[in-house]
Amino acid sequence: MRKYRHQRLRLFDVTASSSAAPALPWRVLVEHPLFLGVLLLVPLVFLLPPLPIDETRYLAVAWEMRSTGEFLVPHLNGALYSQKPPLLFWLINAGWLVTGVHAWTARAMTLLCSIASLVLLARLVERVTGSARAARTSSVMLFGMLYFAAFANAIMFDVLLTTCALLALHGIVDLVEDRGGRGIVLLGLGIGLGVLSKGPVLLLDVGFAAVLAPWWNRGVPRGAGRYFSLLVVALLLGAAIALAWAIPAALHGGPDYAHAIFLSQTVDRIRGIKTGTHAQPVWWYLAWLPVMILPWPIVLRGRWEAIRNALRERGARLALAWVLPALIVFLLIGGKQAHYLLPLLPGVALLLATALDDSALSVRTGLAAAALLVLGVAFAWLPQIAAARPELAFVADTLPWWGAGIGVIGLVLLLAARRIREPFWPAIATLAVVLLFKLAVIQAAGSRYDVRSVASQVKAAQDRGQPIAHLGWHHGVYEFAGRLTEPLTVLTLDELPAWVAEHPDGLVISWYRRFRFRADPLYSQPFRGAEVSIWNAREALASGVDPNASHARDDSDDTNDDD
């Protein structure tokens, strides 16, 4: 087995020598292998509007914190919001103190978290392998993964959770290396901040790596007893950080809120098959994980004997202890979303980087290049396909040039396939394809994913004192975009007649197809796969619901359908 290398090479620069002149700071930045990748992610920070329903909802909660001054307990549409802890909302508000209130501030914040994750991963890999090349490779492998690239600047909790998990992993390595004080602080911070990001799931993301440390490290200094004692101290520190918010919030929010944050939200996720909260079959993650880590399943090649030898390395054993047991538990949990696995992807990157560093794997881009060529042709042909399929209406106006761009990337990779032996260019190609795809959706969707116009209509009605109510739960879609300062009344169809009697000059708004009235709307715009419309309430009630739409299936009417 290759011995652990203790030399401390400069991260990302395996050619550095003591006699070389120090590079200028700007040149170090531009020549950094992550610079081009981050550059490809920046345009989406400013060009991509908050996507309904998740991103608009989280911005609504952050906005309500700011507008009401209630920072202890999150609220949505004036009601207690128990689905998520507050750290993401706090960070968004902290960003607004610097930039003013903008949606791009939240995207920039999550992109900074993604960059921090790349740096933390690289440093972690250098620590456990002693290889600067493996450290550099691991960060390239991570930012080149399809799902990391897709979510790197998404306003989602899992991006922040990934950063917290990596911070906690550094604390675990410190404890393994007998740096007890720093290990307790880093692991405690990672646990506490992770729980404040998305709840106790952080313990699943890093817990097995901590418990199995004597196995993946082949023993721990000064005995397992001392190690696990320090682990418990770090866990108590993390719990104290989380409880410093949770206990005052529970007292302030009341018994129902306390029950929700301490019990029901976690239990509902675990029992997703019974509750319907993102319920999926047991095998579901096994089908999605290869897609999430594309292009590496079709780019990397290796021999089993060499791979088996690489798996004996310290870094590979840490990766296995980190990812495999947690993945098995995720498989058994009823509620599943693909992005729940984001905090495990750095472990996959560590495993692949270790194998590449040992030459157990090699890079071959021919198949990936061919796949991109096919994808480009299919994407260019998409408008013709969408024209005949109503469910694809949101991409019916996609320009074929976006597909051509993807095809060009595939062609360049194909022409250079024999010369590419490092993972950097396949990773950059993946980032570029993600950028082109998102820009294509922005161009084709038009106002379907931009609610600023309809939100301004809601705001105008509230400002002039005209009552307005929403049929069906609205998920806070309009709150941030319209900078609303009053809750938007939510009604069922049965409640509408009484509400109209009390507010004869009122308006009703909805995007649900089963609430499509025969009356002509005062305002309408495309919204996702349907339309959002505003009607005069009396006219809507008098006209009745269009029977052709009244039994249509709506995918967004679930008050518990939260990320």
Describe the protein's architecture and organization:
59% of the residues lie in helices and 6% in strands. With 563 residues, it is mainly alpha-helical. The protein folds into 3 domains: 330 residues, no CATH class; 83 residues, no CATH class; 92 residues, no CATH class. The strands form 3 sheets. The protein has a 5-stranded mixed β-sheet. A two-stranded antiparallel ribbon has the order 1-2. It has a two-stranded antiparallel sheet with strand order 3-4. Strand 8 and strand 9 form a beta hairpin. The longest helix has 30 residues. The radius of gyration is 25 Å and the shape is globular. The N terminus is likely disordered.
What is the compact description of this entry?
The protein is mainly alpha-helical and 563 residues long.
Sequence-ordered SSE layout with sheet pairings:
Blueprint lengths: L24 H6 L4 H13 L6 H15 L6 E2 L2 E2 L6 H13 L3 H27 L2 H12 L2 H6 L5 H20 L3 H19 L2 H11 L1 H4 L7 H30 L1 H16 L1 H4 L8 H9 L3 H4 E3 L1 H7 L3 H19 L12 H13 L3 E3 L2 H15 L1 H6 L12 H16 L8 H22 L6 H12 L4 E4 L17 E3 L4 H7 L4 E4 L12 E5 L2 E7 H7 L20
Parallel strand pairs: 5-6, 5-7
Antiparallel strand pairs: 1-2, 3-4, 7-9, 8-9
Helix pairs in contact: 2-5, 2-23, 3-4, 5-6, 5-8, 6-19, 6-23, 8-9, 8-10, 9-12, 10-18, 12-13, 18-19, 20-22, 22-23
Keywords:
about 5% strand; 3 domains; about 575 residues; two-stranded antiparallel ribbon; single chain; five-stranded mixed sheet; disordered N terminus; mainly alpha
